Amino acid sequence: MNTKAPTLAPLFRSDTQGEILARLFLNPDRSFTISDLARAAHTPYASAHREVTRIAQMGLATTRKRGQAVEVRVRCDTPAFRPLAELLGLTYGPAVVIPKHLAGIAGIDAAYIYGSWAARREGEPGDTPRDIDLLIVGNPPRGEVHEAARTAGLVLVREVNPRIVSAAAWEAADTDQFLRTLRERPLVHLDVTGAPA
């Protein structure tokens, strides 16, 4: 089966591969089950298993059986670790890095990346995104959100621009031109609750 090359980083075979590699390389202190990786990449378990097998065969990760689950951990001692981590941070990194920095901030009902990065992630052609547009739905402390965005931007080597809207405003998006346009354009949902703090 032929799959279209990812718009964010065409040198990867698929977005599934990029998402799985990003989870591993941008969280070198954690192990993931194949099920965790499949969920994060929005792909069937069998596809995630094939990717993990390839990654392990290349010597980039180790696998270990724990009960019924297979745990995967990136190998930080390979020469490819640092350059791959940097590349993944620039391409698939926002969806991995930003939730880690938002985790634990009270009052966030939902978080999304929108704008050019989300458009490239959804396959729309265009220039490489220079910054990341972040939408926070809820009523979190603005200072904490802006500090989280700033520190995530340092990791990602690009600015993260947060915009906070209330849950009521997001629900009534049809009455606001900006929010209505956002709902019609690509949005990448961020799992803030499942992210390690």
Q: What's the shape?
A: globular
* Unreliable residue runs: none
| SS-derived structural category | alpha+beta
* Quantity of strands, as a count: 7
Biggest sheet details = 4 strands, mixed
Tell me the CATH architecture of the largest domain: 2-Layer Sandwich
> What's the order of the H and E elements?
HEHHEEHHEHEHEHHE
Proportion of residues in β-strands? 15-25%
CATH topology of the largest domain: Beta Polymerase, domain 2
The CATH class of the largest domain, by name, is Alpha Beta
Helix tally equals: 9
Helix content: 40-55%
Count of domain modules: 2
Q: What is the terminal separation in angstroms?
A: 38 Å
| CA radius of gyration | 17 Å
Mean pLDDT: 89
Sheet with most strands: strand arrangement: 6-5-4-7
Protein name: ArsR family transcriptional regulator
Organism: Cryobacterium sinapicolor
Quick tags:
ArsR family transcriptional regulator, 43% helix, 197 residues, Beta Polymerase, domain 2, three-stranded antiparallel β-sheet, alpha+beta, 7 strands, 2 domains, Arc Repressor Mutant, subunit A
Brief write-up:
This protein is α+β, with helices and mostly antiparallel strands and 197 residues long. The chain has helices at 15-25, 34-40, 45-57, 81-91, 94-102, 116-121, 142-156, 167-171, 177-184, and strands at 32-33, 61-66, 69-74, 108-114, 131-138, 159-165, 188-189.
